[in-house]
Automatic annotation (TrEMBL):
This is ATP-dependent DNA helicase RecG. Its EC number is 5.6.2.4. It holds the Pfam family Helicase_C. It comes from Streptococcus ferus. Belongs to the helicase family. RecG subfamily. It is an enzyme of class 5 (isomerase). The keyword NAD does not apply. It catalyses: ATP + H2O = ADP + phosphate + H(+); Couples ATP hydrolysis with the unwinding of duplex DNA by translocating in the 3'-5' direction. Keywords: ATP-binding, DNA damage, DNA recombination, DNA repair, DNA-binding, Helicase, Hydrolase, Isomerase, Nucleotide-binding. The lineage of its organism: Bacteria, Bacillati, Bacillota, Bacilli, Lactobacillales. Residues 445-605 form the Helicase C-terminal domain.
């Protein structure tokens, strides 16, 4: 019997039992040993004076009153008695467990696991323990047909058979010594059956480091491979022409823009593949930096392409590039173009008479041939997958690829989600931008807000009103977009032209409404969150978000960024009556800061990475034990060590690292 044997080989488990464990992803004895509990019940008895309200704990004492059962309603009852601990007497209740009455004897010592109610000085019992225990019990994720007891029994059987001793050490000795980490066998044993809390904490620290270290080693290898690819283009741009272009801008570049541009230009010149993410908060001036990179490619005799998610964004970027570079030939390519216009654009792209191309995913469709494509920029990176980026590379002679996103990604996540990329950050806003004033109001104050809005519209302003739902939902008491439009129309009458836009509309219909808003033919645009990404309407100065507590901080910040794009003072009004502390906190934080990265960090703490990005879509890995926010210091340390190892010449041939390469191939994060 070895680690790769089926569970059926273990004492007390047959083939049928072993098959049930497959629901948990446990196929071999090794899988079983590495299936860790997600928490522990600490069955060490506590003094009631140390308990916090709502805390689950074990309380021991002497039974001082007989146990009584009261019945009320069908199959509903309460078992009550009192326990004395030292000088204190505690009331204990068990609901719907009348059979426990026989276990509770007057004058006997008892140990009860339950939930403490501070106000009533009482314990709601969950379990009567057989005897006063002094240990920690693991709690595992289980599936139908597998109980906690069955899982613990199987793990004990594997350990009793000496299988944990067969787990080879997968971290180099110098790391164990440097970070004072437990050995692997001891750590696995202590993850399941720790001697005490300290033993478990040491084991958990070791297992988390191991998991994050192998993940980072994989990313650093990918990064090194990208760097060593010499089949990229060395774009030898004209520095003096580019500097003239920068001087001609109507505004100076910020320090952060200069730094990001320098990173990008260095990548373009290097001859290695560019694999860079340009992160910048809403309104930070990413587009200017991207435009200058495109201009640099033009001075080297190469074409550049900018791909964005929607046609309206493509038109917006096309217009701004034509303003920046009136002397260059710039083409727009979208699937909604008329056939003749599209045909002549394709011809110009293929024969090289076009210098820059802006478009949607139409840019990578069949039939689009580039003359000499040197640089590709994708805006809102998480909307374009790896496949689309590869298609772009195949369109040219392996062009450099720059990805841009306005979603502020906390450093914690950037280092994992985009860890194989280099990240440039634009973390300051251009001078002269007026900060957006953010106010939180309750539904009862709406009348006052609408009256103020009427004055703003009369003075020429435009307004976004955001609603979280399209249709009535019985479970959520929300204003839906359709009702909202009717209510606003009734309130404003002739004083405002109102349009409605939502996600169920066809793309061309949404774009028609958005264009009408941009052209100031609409005063109030009632919309669901479909306006979230990048659309630029400088005249829109107010955004009112209904039931704002239903949105996460990152989403609220993205929505707020739809205003404040001109030189007028802009406002974000959050309408919400949050019932939870978390909802109230989100509203408070939104009114206190405009820093998207700070908000993204807070969002991450409150909601977790999966909810911000959608774990599958963003490629953020799931870890068995590690938590990206909580364990950020371990993640950062693991990154440094992995980067040090990978940066050593011929490290893969060094016998010290053979253990790493073998285990890397087996790790969850290696593909």
């Amino acid at each position: 019997m070895d680690l790769q044997s089926s569970l059926a080989a273990l004492k007390g488990l047959g083939p049928k039992s072993a098959e049930k464990f497959q629901k948990l992803g446990i196929f071999t004895i090794e899988d079983l040993l590495l299936y860790y509990p997600f928490r522990y019940e600490d069955f060490k008895s506590k003094s009631i004076f140390d308990l916090l309200d709502g805390e689950k704990a074990v309380v021991t004492g002497t039974v001082v009153t007989p146990a009584n059962v009261q019945y009320y309603g069908f199959k509903r009852n309460r078992l009550s008695f009192k326990v004395k601990q030292g000088e204190a007497v505690v009331a204990v209740s068990f609901f719907n467990q009348p059979y426990l009455q026989d276990k509770i004897e007057l004058g006997s010592e008892i140990a009860i696991f339950g939930k403490w109610d501070q106000a009533k000085s009482a314990l709601t019992g969950m379990k009567v323990l057989a005897q006063v225990q002094d240990d920690m019990q693991p709690v595992y994720h289980v599936a139908q047909g597998i109980s906690q007891a069955a899982l613990v029994k199987a793990i004990k059987s594997a350990i009793d058979a000496g299988m944990a001793a067969k787990l080879s050490e997968n971290l180099p000795q110098f790391l164990l010594e440097r970070y004072r980490l437990m050995g692997r066998e001891a750590a696995v044993l202590a993850m399941h059956f720790p001697k005490d809390l300290s033993d478990y904490q040491q084991a958990l620290r070791r297992i988390k480091f191991e998991e994050l270290f192998y993940f980072q080693l994989h990313l650093q290898l990918l990064k090194a491979q990208n760097k060593s690819e010499t089949n990229g283009l060395a774009i030898l741009y004209d520095e003096s022409a580019l500097n003239e272009q920068i001087k001609a801008l109507p505004f100076p570049l910020t320090r952060a823009q200069q730094s990001a541009l320098a990173d990008i230009l260095a990548d373009m010149q290097s001859g290695s593949h560019m694999n860079r993410l340009l992160q910048g908060d809403v309104g930070s001036g990413k587009t200017v930096v991207a435009s200058l990179a495109m201009y640099a490619a033009y001075t080297a005799g190469l074409q550049s392409a900018l791909m964005v998610p929607t046609e309206i964004l493509a038109e917006q970027h096309y217009d701004s590039l034509r303003q920046f570079f009136p002397d260059l030939s710039i083409a727009l390519l979208t699937s909604g173009m008329k056939t003749a216009v599209r045909r002549s654009a394709l011809q110009a792209i293929a024969d090289g008479s076009v210098d820059m191309i802006v478009g949607t995913h139409a840019l990578i469709q069949e039939g689009v041939d580039y003359h000499r494509l040197g640089l590709v920029i994708t805006d809102e990176q998480h909307r374009f997958g790896v496949k689309q980026r590869r298609q772009f590379r195949e369109k040219g002679e392996n062009p450099d690829v720059l990805m841009m996103t306005a979603t502020p990604i906390p450093r914690t996540l950037a280092i994992t989600a985009f860890g194989e990329m280099d990240v440039s950050l634009i973390d300051e806003l251009p001078a002269g931008r007026k900060p957006i004033v953010t106010r939180w109001v309750k539904h009862e104050q709406l009348e006052k807000v609408l009256s103020w809005m009427k004055e703003q519209i009369a003075a020429g302003g435009q307004v976004y009103v955001i609603s979280p739902l399209i249709e009535e939902s019985e479970s959520l008491d929300l204003k839906n977009a359709v009702d909202l439009e009717h209510e606003l129309a009734a309130y404003f009458g002739e004083a405002a032209r109102i349009a409605l836009m939502h996600g169920r509309m066809k793309t061309d219909e949404k774009e028609r409404i958005m264009t009408a808003f941009k052209d100031r033919q609409v005063d109030i645009l009632v919309s669901t969150t479909v306006i979230e990404v990048g659309v630029n309407v400088p005249n829109a100065t107010i955004i009112m978000i209904m039931d704002a507590d239903r949105f996460g901080l990152s989403q609220l910040h993205q929505l707020r960024g739809r205003v404040g794009r001109g030189d007028k003072q802009s406002y974000a009004v959050l309408v919400a009556n949050p019932k939870t502390d978390s909802g109230k906190n989100r509203m408070r934080i939104m009114t206190e800061t405009l820093d998207g990265f700070l908000l993204a960090e807070e969002d991450l703490k409150m909601r977790g990475s999966g909810e911000i990005f959608g774990t599958r879509q963003s490629g953020i890995p799931e870890f068995k034990t590690a938590d990206l926010v909580e364990d950020y210091p371990i993640l950062e340390e693991a990154r440094k060590v992995a980067a040090d190892i990978v940066s050593q010449p011929n490290w893969q041939k060094d016998p010290r690292w053979h253990v790493l390469l073998g285990n890397l191939k087996k790790s969850d994060h290696f593909d």
